[in-house]
Amino acid sequence: MMNTTLKKTLKYVSMTGFAWFAANTLSNIAFAKDATGVGAKPNAQMQAVLDELQKLGPKPLETLTAAEARKQPTPADAVKALLKKKQNMSMDPKPEEVGKVENKRIEGPSGSIDIRVYTPKGSGPFPVIVYYHGGGWVIADLDTYDSSPRALVNATNAVVVSSHYRQGPEHKFPAAHDDALAAYKWTLEHTKELNGDSKHIAVVGESAGGNLAASVSILAREHRMPMPIYQVLVYPIAGYNFETPSYIENAKAKPLSRDAMKWFFTQYLNSPAEGKNHLISLVSERDLKGLPPTTVITDQIDPLRSEGKEYADKLEAAGVKVRYKNYDGVTHEFFGMGAVIDKAKQAQHFAAEGLKEAFAEAK
């Protein structure tokens, strides 16, 4: 028979072993939940947009050709559908009003580039923002991203030059980046024509456009051009690492998933090796000193959240003045949804604060 001490020892081992098993089992269950790629839940306003988007029947981008993907319903379409429903309208709701809107074509490094110039009400001269739309360098255009420039015009009292660019897979890297720089250079040379002030020029971009805006600042420095006095990077593509915390947490997020991001890179890059280029993976840029003061905006339900925060941290470590804010409960693409999402309005206001401060300080 076992003595009392041995019995107590075995009982203790049994209990602690069970505790270890239970703790690890619970941990594995929790990890399995995270590993599904379904992160935080959208707030009610964001969910309403996602519900409308789902009703429009978009297919996963990674199952489509680029030509097919460009015909898919967009989050902007979902916002319009939601507004029509809320306002009981038969026609599309009118966009936010600005002083004047003009479509132009400018010469780029390989043909013409479509731009759209939004001008505030008033006499000017105004500060100028060069804005780059999102779409993974593959899809979307000036119409898809019409609401953000309008909101920026009214929030900052600045002229906004919204620039399109060549897209993959027809035009591979660095085509979009070259066009983005060309649009910035054109703006520098035509500020008087725009009723703008050449000493007050900033860049703003969303997603792939955020990457382009950041790249323009880097390229302007490399080419010894006048740099923007400020940059706003809204959930920018800033890395080429699909294993960051936000990529794992939001692998199956909507409207942007990890598979969709891999598809975008495949369409635009000539090879995976280009993913490490400093204009694609901004976080790999070794010298960030001297770049413009920056606002970085990220959102919780987004594969790109981690790299956006990492780039903000690296800029700050290099001595760049940085304003950073993450918005919980919303997804990629939320920024231009001020008509239906309160946090979009807050993010637009946050972006405008940094821009107006820079415009006021510039001489």
Layout: helices, strands, pairs:
Elements: H1 4-35, H2 44-55, H3 66-69, H4 75-87, E1 100-108, E2 111-119, E3 126-132, H5 147-156, E4 159-163, H6 175-189, E5 196-206, H7 208-222, E6 231-234, H8 245-249, H9 258-268, E7 294-301, H10 305-317, E8 322-331, H11 342-361
Helix pairs in contact: 2-4, 5-11, 6-7
Gist of the model:
The protein has 363 residues and is of the alpha/beta class. It has eleven helices and eight strands.
Account of the protein in words:
This protein has 363 residues and is α/β, with parallel strands linked by helices. It has one domain: Alpha/Beta hydrolase fold, catalytic domain (Rossmann fold). 41% of the residues lie in helices and 17% in strands. It is built from 11 helices and 8 strands. The protein has helices spanning 4-35, 44-55, 66-69, 75-87, 147-156, 175-189, 208-222, 245-249, 258-268, 305-317, 342-361, and strands spanning 100-108, 111-119, 126-132, 159-163, 196-206, 231-234, 294-301, 322-331. An 8-stranded mixed beta sheet has the order 1-2-4-3-5-6-7-8, with helices on both faces. The chain is globular, with a radius of gyration of 23 Å. The N and C termini lie far apart (92 Å).
